[in-house]
UniProtKB/TrEMBL annotation:
Keyword Amino-acid biosynthesis: no
Chain segments annotated as transmembrane: none
Gene source species: Streptomyces goshikiensis
Lineage: Bacteria, Bacillati, Actinomycetota, Actinomycetes, Kitasatosporales
Response regulatory domain residues: 6-123
Residue numbers carrying 4-aspartylphosphate: D55
UniProt protein name: Response regulator
Length: 227
């Protein structure tokens, strides 16, 4: 059974957290609440998250400051952040969100379907990333002598490589489809930033997989980075 991904919801208003849970419940993932930036940072110390939905306007540590702390930590700096805001202060405010490390910046009220679709892509990417790392680690053990030898070992290695490639191709196809759909609906900076983030992640995973192919001369494969 594939382990559910965790999605961190950060908002100081309980009614907003309830609304987000209602929207994202259909994804059937683990939704974790945080009512402040400080509470979010504590959650990030112990758990891994596929994506963070972060409210901008919060008392004390606001969304921008919270994001800055997240991006400074090596453990969490690659987790995608989607900013949610009820106030649109114009391009400068939006730019500040991207400068803080967000992959998207959404103004309330937002289309529930669009938000759910965007979050689902990051969840799928996270899940595939985890599966790829686990299977690449297994393959590394086999290549280092921990698996079967001879023809049987070669067949197992080839089978694992084929499965890894198929899994990665599936998420590449899904990401491409969503990027195309969002591109048809809007050409704003949010779409560009989201697409660029996905492309970087997928390129890294594909490069790691290519390094596992026989004859690359790379020795033991290098696993993609966490997140």
């Amino acid at each position: 059974m594939v382990q559910k991904a965790k999605i961190l919801l950060v908002d100081d208003r309980p009614e907003n957290l309830l609304a987000l849970e209602a929207i994202l419940s259909a994804l059937d993932q683990t939704l974790v609440r945080a009512s402040s930036g400080e509470e979010a940072l504590k959650a990030l110390l112990t758990d891994d998250f596929a994506v963070i939905l972060l409210d901008v306007q919060m008392p004390g540590m606001d969304g921008f400051e919270t994001a800055a702390h997240i991006k400074r930590r090596e453990r969490t700096r690659d987790i995608p952040i989607i900013f949610l805001t009820a106030i649109n202060h114009g391009p400068h405010h939006t730019f500040r969100g991207y400068a803080a490390g967000a992959v998207d910046y959404i103004s309330k009220p937002f289309d529930p379907w669009v938000l759910r679709a965007k979050v689902s892509v990051f969840v799928e990417l996270y899940t595939k990333n985890c599966q790829l790392r686990e299977q690449a680690a297994l393959l590394r053990l086999q290549l280092e002598g921990g698996g079967s030898s001879g023809v049987e070992g070669s067949k197992e290695t080839a089978g694992l490589l084929a499965e890894l490639s198929a899994r990665l191709a599936a998420v590449e196809e899904q990401a491409e489809a969503l990027t195309k759909q969002l591109g048809e609906e809007s050409a704003d900076a949010a779409v560009v930033a989201t697409a660029a983030h996905l492309e970087r992640k997928l390129t890294g995973l594909r490069r790691a997989l290519d390094a596992l192919e026989p004859g690359t001369g790379g020795g033991a494969p290098v696993l993609p980075a966490q997140g």
